[in-house]
Amino acid sequence: MTRSLSLIYLTIIFALILTISPMPDVLAPYRPDWALMAIVYWSIALPHRVNVLTAWITGLMLDLLLGSVLGVNGLIFTIIAYVAASNFKRIRNFSVWQQAIIVGMLSAFYHLTEYWLVFILTDSYFFPSLMWPTVTTAVMWPWAFLLLRKIRRGFKIS
């Protein structure tokens, strides 16, 4: 495993840690999808390095960390990584704010699909508050993008 790939995996692990880190109860419903942002960034920046397999493994790790139905996040992350990697040239040409809208839509897809799959597999109810992370993910995207780009350029990850 090269140094570049190790740094990519380190940023994904850090995003997973941010995903499970404790937050005050008031802010917990607004937690951004850190792992999703990391997967989308690396799928857009280096689609030959981060692919659907990386997204699937990240999703499975997220399932294990959150104690959710095994495979749900893996499936959704795989679909999102495929969409991001197959359209990476288009998405790269958008401004960071336009990318934030796309990432917000991908996050909405993530939450709605996750709810739908969990509803089919178990018994759950939909609350509109389930969609708040979509807004915070879109708002946090420019800063996550700039931080990950600075890491990629600073360490010359290619």
UniProtKB/TrEMBL annotation:
Q: Which residues form a coiled coil?
A: none
User: Where in the cell does this protein reside?
Assistant: Cell inner membrane; Cell membrane
Cell inner membrane as a keyword? yes
- Membrane-topology annotation of the record: Multi-pass membrane protein
Predominant location category: membrane
Q: Which domain of life is it from?
A: Bacteria
> Keyword set for this entry?
Cell inner membrane, Cell membrane, Cell shape, Membrane, Transmembrane, Transmembrane helix
Q: Which GO terms describe its biological process?
A: regulation of cell shape
Q: Which InterPro entries match?
A: Cell_shape_determining_MreD (IPR007227), MreD_proteobac (IPR026034)
Q: Does the keyword Metal-binding apply?
A: no
Residue stretches spanning the membrane: 6-27, 64-84, 96-113, 125-148
| Any one of the GO CC terms | plasma membrane
**Which Pfam families does the UniProt entry name for this protein?**
MreD (PF04093)
- What does the record give as the function of this protein? Involved in formation of the rod shape of the cell. May also contribute to regulation of formation of penicillin-binding proteins.
Q: Which NCBIfam families match?
A: shape_MreD
What the record says about family reads: Belongs to the MreD family.
Q: Which PANTHER family match?
A: ROD SHAPE-DETERMINING PROTEIN MRED
What protein name does the entry list?
Answer: Rod shape-determining protein MreD
* Species this chain originates from: Saccharobesus litoralis
Give the encoding gene's name: mreD
